[in-house]
Amino acid sequence: MSRKLPHKDVVIVGFGWVGSIMAQELTDEGLEVIAIERGPWRDTATDYPPTYDQDELRYRIRHELFLRPDQTTFTFRNKMNQTALPIRTWGAFMPPNGVGGGGVHWNAETWRFLPSDFVLKTHLTERYGADFLPSDMTIQDWGVTYEELEPHYDRFEYLCGTSGTAGNLQGQIQEGGNPFEGPRSRPYPNPAQPQPFSHTLFGKAARELGYKPFPQPSGNMSQAYTNPLGVRLGPCTYCGFCEWFGCGNYSKASPQTTILPVLIRKSNFTVRDNSEVVRINLDPSGKTAAGVTFVDTSGEEWEQPADIVIVSAYAIFNAQLMLLSGIGKPYDPLTGEGVMGRNFTHQTISDAVGFFDNTKFNFNPFIASGSIGMCIDEFNGDNFDHGPHGFVGGGYMGQVQSNGRPIETTPVPSGTPRWGAEWKAAVRDNYLSSVKPGTGVHGSFYSYRDVYLDLDPIYKDRFNRPLMRMTIDFHDNELKQNAFLTDRFAEIIQAMGAKKVDKEYRQGPYDITKYQTTHLCGGVIMGTDPRTSAVNRYLQSWDVPNLFVVGASAFPQNAGYNPTGTVAALAYWAAAAIREQYLKNPGVLIHA
Amino acid sequence: MPRHSGASGVALSTLVALAFCTSVSPRAAEKQDAQDFTQIERGRYLTTAADCAACHTMPDQKQPFAGGRPIETPFGVIVAPNITPDRETGIGTWTDDEFDAALRQGKRPDGSRLYPAMPYPAYTKMSREDVQDIRAYLATIAPVHNQVEPNQLPFPFSVRAAMMAWDALYFQEGEFRPDATKSATWNRGAYLVQGPGHCASCHTPKTVLGGDKTEQAFQGGVIQGWFAPDLTNDKATGLGSWSAEDIVAYLGTGHNASTAATGLMAEVVERSTSKMTKADLEAIAAYLKDQPAAGHTATAVQATDPLMVAGGAIYHDVCSACHAIDGTGVPHLIPSLAASPSVHSTDPTTLVRVTLSGARSVATDQEPTAPAMPAFAWQFNDEQIAAVLTYVRNSWGSAAPAVTAHDVETKRVELKTRGEH
Amino acid sequence: MRLRRRDFLLTTAAILGGSHIALADSISGSLPWEPDAGIPPERIKLGSWLYFTSEEARTVEALADRIIPPDPATPGGKDAGCAVYLDRQLAGPYGSQHGLYVKPPFLKGLKQQGPQTEDGPAQVYRKGLAALNRYSSQGQDGKVFAELTGERQDEILKGLESGKLQLPEADGQAFFEALLKDIQQGFFADPIYGGNRDMVAWRMIGFPGARYNYRDWVNRHNERYPLPPVGITGRPEWTPKKS
Questions:
Q1: Which residues form the signal peptide (chain B) (predicted)?
Q2: Cβ separation of B317 and C215 shorter than 8 Å?
Q3: Do the domain assignments include residue A443?
Q4: CATH-assigned architecture of domain B28-148
Q5: Which of A137, A372, A423, C166 has the greatest CB tally within 10 Å of its CB?
Q6: Which chains does chain B touch, 3 or more C-beta pairs < 8 A?
Q7: Is the ipTM of this complex over 0.90?
């Protein structure tokens, strides 16, 4: 039996980037807001100070800042006819945990999606014809356009102090930026970060090959910055301990370094940590959310009533909470009907590792920020003619190497034994003179009928609730895309002057042990039709109008970029819809 | 309300027991007189400027002015009394004169003496009118029934009569007299600093009995395990390198280009100075900038000294992550170790303390970031802390006495005793 | 009060290598902070083995020296402390799969579904080391692994790696993969964990260690970084020389 807490205007489930943005926006509206977070409170000096944050074993290998699988995990299989087995330790992705969520330990790569990404189905069909798309591909338009999201991308970038070089200012293409990006209303708030040697070399080689390289947009500060909320960030020190780690010196944008200092001072805001929401409660009509029920660390169950429920956890957990709460029709891959769990996607990542003459090249790979790097965007989205290639989608590519941490980044040329004297010598001889971007090719992952989420029939979590089951595999379209992109990428690494380039293509089947990014998307997708989407263009549940499900869970398919910029833009977009429309007239915002 | 501040449970030395007239309703706000409203508002502001809450409100701020906060004094710990209008446990029955006598003469209604943890040696400079304004405001706050036994001192200090001797030695009664040769701004600043602001309570060094060493006024003193720094115009240890604007920014926001408030001063900024008017802060700055320099001199520790060599290595490897390789920090975010006066204080108490235990700077509406320094007690031994602090005190053109391993060891023990380390 | 929560953490020693038990809390008003906040790492203590038997330890040291052989410039896995590292890891949360999902059923899956064994690393090593020594002492070699020649040891390891050599009652290939990963991780991890003694691995490759500020070097292209490595607990130069 749960104990009932005092009523709030808004309850937020999951307190990462989206939860923080929603809380900041809705408290500004005067609403009483409580956020409930499964993991612990986290802050700079207490959880990842620069005194011991540089501990590769603890943070990177043993996953200090991530969810513990014994708290909850997923099951995984490639195909519907296989038995899904639990992910017992993280591999392909690393679900965040704790206040700040993934915003604590991301690399801070702060991209916008292309205008065409938001109208993908329409765009590709118009350009190549419906027959060009694989028959089981289930891509959709988002229901929101780039133009509509632009002011919200802009807000997030100015919140974060994103460092970058604009490529398209109000339609004018800018030298040194990404010429393929959608028009932006104003420049980045900070200039691009300076680039270390190998990153600079990549830019030079790409330019010589006829590409238009540009610095990766970065949430690591190129200089000290004060954001519009008055919160200050310091300059990045290129420590090389960014992704998987928190930032110890206030120079990486995170909820902690951009929003929380202001939000926590508001008398109409509270956050509960170490508390896991187990279900969204509906009133007897089933059409209105009454609040949520959560369990704290002592096992005590609490009911938090609220007028508005915002679900803003990690994408898969958003889908799981909806399914466990019985909201929305579960997706059935056999009939293609139902929405909850539909269009689950990830990313298609590969790499090319370059080995250089160590008497001529010294890259000091340990000098880097999380989103350092020079990139090209010629092969992303539909920036190139896919006609001759027989696939759709693409990705950015670049020398985006963020570290020289020795457990993770001691590459040896292919053909070298994995151990013994020869391995040891190769590690020694190549460490300073190799280029290992890690995620050199950052490709899209489009949606398919048989890639989806549902509740596992066998495995349970600590509360005896079914784990989420992922059914996911690479389709030919993504593998073809990856082979093409990886080859283009390797050409640039070669042109940097490498004596040897090892291509590391992404190959099927999808492997849960091989890290690919943590960009799991979909499951509670947005759209214009309640038969094929779970939330409308304002991220409002079609079934329960006082429920908003915000995050990468809303992506109908994943583009060839890191998702955080778009996730945050959607959060501001949804918050604006609540502030400007919903509160004036609570109820359905879009009549289907 | 902040739940987390002031975890130490001890407070600044400030004010004590106050009075209220028995003949009127304790709810002065019930009177609909506009004059009263003005007086109450003035009183509220002066109560903030005098930072009465620093001692009389517990850190959780749940019961404003209900007392209960322990205050360290040279005689032992005393507990700040309840100054709400509660008639039994507060000051609801005090008369105007009794209230005035408490603040300006250090006398209780029964004629016995207050302990100088209550800064009546400063409040005596206030005008009777200002004191009555404070009283008018305090009469409007919610009465709280909270019995506080302030006197928990050991003999002989438990005998309040002993304070008569103290007063004879150290207490100079008398209202502030403006200096006609100075500007109105200067005089306003002098009044605020000497009177309600009671800056000397912490920033003037004390005798063993807790009296001001008046010949060293504002040259800095140890209080509750912190060193309240030199407020004179000494270029190295005091405000000599600060402009008036730097002082205003510091008091108003808790941060300026070279430093950040933490510890007890963070509380002062949070509850008092950040809520004062810009004009008053400018007045304080004008007065402080017109004070002489303490004239502290120190010979720089040689760069080749083993402490400096080791300290330099530690600084570059660790501290430079935030404070920058050249010691300049990040203005308004990370203190500049090259410029911050606290770094070069004659007494390294604060420096050692924040290095051992870490510190969070104050959050204000203007500067909400409140960055924190991590604790280093686990990482460095006493000798290493001594080395790195000696290095930061003697680099980038500065000079200050070396910090010794013994200083650090003493501080570790002290913090442990305080239950803070 | 949050402060109590941290105290709880420390006093109950609920700190198991990064897996911290924390109490639910409600936070508002100001950013939580208290003196001495944080959960710094603990330096391993040298001394007797915590997990390995002396026979196991001897075997692991021999294995560590084959995976990372000594050379004139850099010690091998044994002298770098990789066996000590592994011993402490197996005695801690890593060895017992603390924090991982260990609920049954343990079904045999496809390789891409990841490990599905009930045994944690501690058991994998216990069984694997015993099986390795059984193989070498009861088979043609007639001696425990540590007593074999380097060439013969390498031959056995290659057999395990390729899967051509099967160990009695243990998955030799899985054992080898765990060993390879752990020994190399211990070699490159911060010295506080027992391996990478005196930062030998970092010196070998030119990694400057737990530094946090390269602002002075980011624009210095193709120039060797001049400062020596530093560990979380420092480097020799942190201690003032006696004058």
A1: 1-19
A2: no
A3: yes
A4: Orthogonal Bundle (1.10)
A5: A372
A6: A, C
A7: yes
